[in-house]
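Tokens for chain A. Residues wanted.
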């Protein structure tokens, strides 16, 4: 039988895989664009370098205007250095920081308010260019002892290329945030809808159970009167079972509403249910109850009995042949907590399944919905503000479930 909840997990894996493929595709395509734009910018820098070289070596004055026009077409910011690393030329930089007030042009008045020449700006720009791209080496013809044999052209990436490098990460972050928001909203809406369906189904079940339970109670009274069976132990057990059906119906009627908790002795509540339960299972399974009767907690008996019923049924199903179920009630005085440990000598649970057993749909039986422990966890954590977990388990030796509830002392009860 296909499990709906396991299928949901499969769909999550499929969606994660699909999202990963989209993310990888986006990164690969962006890297493709970055690589081609970077190659294009390097070609423009190379054109500027070649044009600069032609200006130095060309003797054709008619050809120089064309070379200057070609060089001006390159918009890539660049710095030219000699073989010693000294800056000898630059282009495309911030003109407010590259103007040199020491240079006086005849006929042009000196503007004292103009920005000053900033040598450090050139050094910073050169360092940035060195970190971004490999330089373009341009060999020069020998023209004297003091003349450099080659120069290096460094260039800076364009703003577009820089933005394109980080764009996919921004895009993926936005998509991830949107998917997370959409998934959270959808999941919340779906859970709310499921809860409404379960609440309606539970209340309708309680309503439908009411009529046959009332009829059974009436028939038992007639049987006792007709056959004078007031003292018959079998009739007493039948009455107990009918009362249990009433409790079950009451449980379903309370689903969806906030249950009322009463301060009760944990030991007494557990003892009452264990005494009812143990006479309805195989005599090959023995029961043991121990603990302090003075420990109290806020309990809703119909719902808490449901928890005990699920745990004890699971313990019985885990035991093959003879076995023992032990319920131990203890206290953590430091944290004011009550511990309820339900242990069995059954087949045990793998450590990898300690959390999985509480998920809806998980079951090791051929027949069953796998909702018992899921409902148990919800009743304990949502309605009793406690915790439940697998405390310990060993394959072939048994399992211990632990319930933790807040301990209510007598002085706390008096104060409230």
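Reply:
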């Amino acid at each position: 039988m296909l499990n709906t909840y396991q299928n949901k997990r499969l769909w999550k894996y499929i969606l994660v895989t699909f999202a990963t493929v989209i993310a990888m595709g986006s990164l690969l395509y962006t890297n493709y664009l970055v690589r081609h734009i970077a190659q294009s910018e390097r070609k423009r820098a190379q054109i500027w370098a070649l044009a600069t070289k032609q200006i130095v070596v060309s003797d054709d004055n008619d050809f120089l205007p064309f070379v200057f026009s070609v060089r001006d077409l390159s918009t890539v910011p660049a710095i030219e250095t000699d073989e010693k690393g000294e800056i000898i030329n630059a282009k495309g930089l911030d003109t407010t920081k590259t103007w040199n007030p020491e240079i006086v042009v005849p006929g042009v008045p000196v503007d004292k308010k103009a920005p000053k020449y900033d040598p450090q700006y050139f050094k910073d720009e050169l360092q940035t260019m060195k970190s971004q791209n490999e330089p373009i080496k341009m060999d020069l013809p020998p023209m004297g002892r003091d003349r450099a044999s080659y120069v290096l052209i460094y260039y800076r990436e364009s703003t577009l290329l820089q933005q394109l490098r980080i764009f996919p990460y921004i895009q993926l972050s936005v998509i991830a945030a949107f998917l997370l928001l959409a998934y959270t909203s959808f999941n919340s809406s779906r859970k709310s809808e499921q809860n409404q369906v379960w609440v309606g189904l539970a209340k309708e079940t309680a309503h439908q159970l009411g009529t046959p339970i009332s009829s059974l109670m009436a028939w038992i009274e007639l049987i006792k009167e007709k056959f004078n069976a007031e003292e018959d132990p079998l009739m007493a057990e039948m009455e107990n079972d009918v009362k249990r059906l009433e409790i079950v119906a009451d449980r379903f009627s309370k689903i969806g509403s906030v249950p009322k908790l009463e301060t009760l002795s944990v030991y007494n509540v557990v003892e009452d249910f264990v005494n009812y339960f143990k006479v309805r299972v195989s005599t090959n399974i023995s029961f043991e109850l121990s603990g302090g009767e003075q420990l109290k907690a806020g309990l809703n008996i119909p719902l808490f009995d449901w928890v005990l019923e699920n745990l004890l049924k699971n313990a019985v199903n885990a035991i093959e042949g003879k076995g023992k179920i032990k319920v131990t009630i203890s206290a953590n005085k430091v944290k004011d907590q009550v511990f309820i440990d339900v242990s069995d000598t059954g087949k045990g649970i793998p450590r990898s399944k300690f959390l999985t057993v509480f998920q809806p749909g998980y079951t090791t039986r051929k027949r069953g919905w796998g909702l018992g422990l899921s409902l148990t966890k919800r009743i304990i954590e949502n309605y009793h503000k406690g915790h439940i977990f697998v405390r310990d388990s060993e394959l072939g030796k048994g399992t211990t479930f632990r319930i933790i509830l807040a301990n209510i002392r007598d002085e706390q009860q008096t104060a409230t």
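The chain has a mean pLDDT of 81. The chain has three domains: 4-90+119-157, 187-257, 259-415.
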